[in-house]
Amino acid sequence: MISSLLPEPVRRVAAWCVVFLLLTGVVAVLVRLCVIFQTAVTPVLLALLGTALLGPLHRRLIRMRVNRSLAAALTCLAVVAVFGGATYVVASVLVHTGDQILTGLRRAGQDLAEHFGAAGTSVEDLAANAEELLAKFGATAASGVITGISVVGEMIATAVLALLLSFFFLRDSDRAAATLRSLAPRQAGDMLEAMGRRAFGAVEGFMRGTTFIALIDAVCIGVGLLVLRVPGALGLAALVFVGAYIPYLGAFISGTVAVLVAFADGGWVTGLWAVGVVLAVQVLEGHVLLPMIQSRTVQMHPAVVMLAITAGAGVAGVLGMLLAVPLTAAAFGIVSELRARYTSGAPGGKPGGTPGGAPVQGS
């Protein structure tokens, strides 16, 4: 055979290339299917993220000897109350301060145009276009155009379905391990369960850590903008909180908007102070919060995160940007589990084990 004529290193490289091509093909098919069945896949992914975020509360209720179904229902009701109230507050703040923010951006564009020419004109055009789009959106919603109603209805249906799926995922989380084992041959059951636990633990850590960091960023930047008396400070803080779920890119955009509004309202002094506030919060996040959070989850290089966000945006737009990083974290968790098992030479080791022997937190 021709393969027998090739050196051993060449045969190994060829084998790994075949494996890589097969994995790439499988991933491409899965992504394509997810795009085709986006209406069904999106609620499932959102429910998994919600389950990862709410798992600690549900487990705490279980330890208090609350029935599993009742604990899942109480957890979902708490989600509706907290996130519903937070969404209402964020939306109302953005509505009431949106004009102030857009006015600030326009003034910043005019001031920058006087000093830097085309760059400032672009900012001014961005603010004008944003105001025009908001006006058109408001007019569309008010006139009750069928397209607008269908979009709102689809969003509501997705949210309700994701909430119901979260209830079932939380209630039946104790059966997840048995379900994973049933999907694999007997010899691979332990490994599949371990990979599932590691992937879910990575997503759970990412969601909890991101929410914690988003809250701290929003509070710190919001307080700083209030001290500087920047108009629309609460709305800008809300943008910071929402943008934190898109790592790096979201913080950059929301911070830039806050600085431009502060510059337009208070001039260079206020703008520079706003830059200092935003940079101080980013330094706190990058050197204190992120290392502390990532040390308990899967560490990902910033370049990998940016590539994941870009790929997610290309596949599913803003929703893809939000889902790309937790899905990448899950993939890194699976790879970490496989590496820990096969580099230690014990593929039949303890499910969910780490290189240091500490158990991985699961659902």
Largest sheet entry: none
How many individual β-strands? 0
* Helix count from the secondary structure assignment: 10
Helix content: over 70%
Report the radius of gyration as a whole number of Å. Answer: 24 Å
Q: Order of helices and strands, N to C?
A: HHHHHHHHHH
Integer tally of domains: 2
How large is the share of residues in beta strands? under 5%
- N-to-C terminal Cα separation, in Å? 50 Å
Summing up helix and strand content along with how strands pair, one would put the structural category as mainly alpha
Any key phrases for this structure?
363 residues, mainly alpha, disordered C terminus, transmembrane, transport
List the helices and strands and how they pair.
Elements: H1 8-36, H2 38-63, H3 68-116, H4 118-143, H5 146-171, H6 176-182, H7 189-227, H8 233-243, H9 249-294, H10 302-343
